[in-house]
Specification:
Order of helices and strands: EEEEEEEEEEE
Length: 116
């Protein structure tokens, strides 16, 4: 079965760092674009970053540019999101997803909480 599992979330102080991981089973990341999304309570889900190994391209939302870095170890079928200089506004559940023509499948999410 196809499965995506996020990990690495937690509680950090403002200015701290976390590294999120997205591990895939049942398919190969190398054939997909992998994206990170986040959703805070009462807000719409928003795109954070994505990476395409086949196209060799990355994307970052304006709100995280210069602070977050997406990378992949496609031999391990894992994509990472390094989050530095975290702000309370980054508090959300973070999800990874895979896409060829659309964002399917999705992981279950990992909670990131940034305290003031």
């Amino acid at each position: 079965e196809v499965q995506l599992v996020e990990s690495g979330g937690g509680l950090v102080q403002a200015g701290g760092s976390l590294r999120l991981s997205c591990a895939a089973s049942g398919f190969t990341f190398d054939d997909y674009t992998i994206g990170w999304f986040r959703q805070a309570p009462g807000k719409e889900r928003e795109g954070v970053s994505c990476i395409s190994s086949s196209e060799g391209s990355t994307y970052y939302a304006d709100s995280v540019k210069g602070r977050f870095t997406i990378s992949g170890d496609f031999a391990k079928n894992t994509v990472y999101l390094q989050m530095n200089s975290l702000k309370p506004e980054d508090t959300a559940v973070y999800y990874c997803a895979a896409a060829r023509l659309k964002w399917v499948p999705w992981g279950q999410g990992t909670q990131v909480t940034v305290s003031s």
